[in-house]
Design goal:
Elements lengths: L1 H20 L13 H25 L1 H20 L2 H19 L6 E5 L6 H8 L12 H8 L5 E9 L3 E8 L4 E5 L2 E5 L5 E3 L11 E3 L3 H4 L1 H7 L3 H6 E7 L3 E6 L3 E4 L5 H15 L6 E5 L5 E6 L4 E5 L5
Parallel strand pairs: 1-3, 4-7, 7-8, 10-11
Antiparallel strand pairs: 2-3, 4-5, 5-6, 8-9, 9-10, 11-12, 12-13
C-alpha cells in the first residue's frame, strides 16, 4: 500500500513540475498604425465626406440650380450693362495716357485717292479721332471698315510715329449702267454691282439691260468702241434670253445680233450705216441673224429681205 501511494505522489509532483516548466503563449499586443494605414483611413474619411456632399447636392437640386442661375445672371448683368467693357476701356486709357502725354498722339490724318468716295464717309469709316494715342490705331481694323464703303476696292492705312496716320484708297472703276426692271445700278467690268446711288453722274456709260447682262457685257462693249458710227447712235445693249444681244439705236431702231459670230455682224452694220445710210430710212428692225440676207422691217410692219453681198 505504501509503495502505490508513493508512486501516485511522485506522478502528481512530476505533473506539477511539468506545468510550471511550460511557457504559456502571451496575447498579442496592438501595434501602432503604419503610414499606409493612416493614409487609407484619411482617404476613406475624405471619400465619406465627398459622398456626403454628393448626397447633399442630389438631395437639394433646387438649391444648386438657384446658385448657378444667380452666378450666371450676375455675369450676364456685368457684360450687358457694359461694366466689363467700361473697366477694360478705363484700363486701356490708363495705359496709353503716358504715351499720349509724351507726344504720341494723333495730330494729322492724310487721305488720298477719294475720287468718288465722300471724304466724310471715309473719315467716319476710319473711326480714328485726333488727340488719341497713335498706338491705339489698328490699321487692319481701319482698312476692313474702309473696304465696306461701296466705291473702295482696296485701302492702305499706315501709322507714322510719332503723331500721323496716312490713308490711301484704291477705288472701283465704273464700266456700265445696268437697268434691271426699274432699278439702275453702276457695275464694274466683272459685272459686280458697285452702287445704285448717283447713277445720274454716269449717263455717259453704256446702258445694258436683261438678265445676265452685267457678267457678259465686256466683250461686246469693247467691240463697239471700234465701230464709231454704231457707237454714235447707240442707246442701249439688251441681253435676250441670256444667249444673244440686241442693239438699241437712236430713232427707235433695234438691231438683232446672232448668238454666234456677232463680231462680224457689227462690221457689216457699221458698213450699212456709213455706206448705205440705212438709218436714214423708215426702218424699225434690222435682223442680222440670217447668213444669206439682211432682213429690214419697216415701221409700217413690212419686212424686206436684202441679199448679202458676197465678199472676195
Amino acid at each position: 500500500m505504501r509503495s502505490v501511494k508513493a508512486r501516485d505522489a511522485r506522478s502528481e509532483k512530476s505533473a506539477a513540475s511539468g506545468r510550471r516548466g511550460k511557457i504559456l503563449p502571451r496575447a498579442p499586443e496592438p501595434r501602432a498604425d503604419t503610414r499606409a494605414q493612416r493614409k487609407a483611413k484619411r482617404g476613406a474619411q475624405s471619400g465619406t465626406r465627398a459622398e456626403g456632399e454628393r448626397r447633399l447636392a442630389f438631395r437639394r437640386p433646387i438649391l444648386v440650380l438657384t446658385l448657378i442661375l444667380i452666378v450666371a445672371g450676375a455675369a450676364i448683368g456685368l457684360f450687358a450693362g457694359g461694366h466689363v467693357a467700361k473697366a477694360v476701356g478705363r484700363m486701356e486709357a490708363a495705359m496709353v495716357a503716358p504715351f499720349t502725354d509724351a507726344g504720341f498722339a494723333v495730330r494729322t490724318i492724310t487721305l488720298a485717292g477719294e475720287e468718288r468716295t465722300a471724304t466724310d464717309a471715309a473719315y467716319a469709316a476710319l473711326a480714328i479721332g485726333k488727340g488719341g494715342s497713335i498706338f491705339s490705331v489698328r490699321p487692319d481694323e481701319a482698312r476692313a471698315r474702309l473696304l465696306m464703303l461701296p466705291w473702295v476696292a482696296d485701302a492702305e492705312v499706315r501709322r507714322h510715329l510719332p503723331d500721323s496716320v496716312s490713308v490711301r484708297l484704291i477705288e472701283k472703276r465704273p464700266f456700265a449702267l445696268w437697268r434691271n426692271g426699274r432699278e439702275l445700278s453702276i457695275v464694274e467690268r466683272s459685272g459686280a454691282v458697285i452702287t445704285k446711288a448717283g447713277t445720274e453722274r454716269f449717263a455717259h456709260l453704256p446702258l445694258i439691260s436683261g438678265a445676265g447682262a452685267p457678267e457678259t457685257a465686256a466683250p461686246i462693249i469693247d467691240a463697239l468702241t471700234r465701230q464709231k458710227a454704231i457707237q454714235a447712235r447707240l442707246q442701249g445693249i439688251e441681253r435676250i434670253g441670256e444667249r444673244r444681244w440686241d442693239l438699241l439705236l437712236s430713232g427707235g431702231v433695234t438691231v438683232r445680233l446672232p448668238e454666234e459670230g456677232w463680231e462680224r455682224q457689227l462690221s457689216d452694220l457699221e458698213r450699212l450705216i456709213v455706206e448705205k445710210g440705212v438709218l436714214e430710212r423708215d426702218i424699225e428692225v434690222i435682223d442680222l441673224r440670217y447668213p444669206d440676207s439682211y432682213v429690214f422691217r419697216l415701221h409700217n410692219g413690212d419686212s424686206r429681205p436684202v441679199p448679202r453681198e458676197r465678199r472676195a
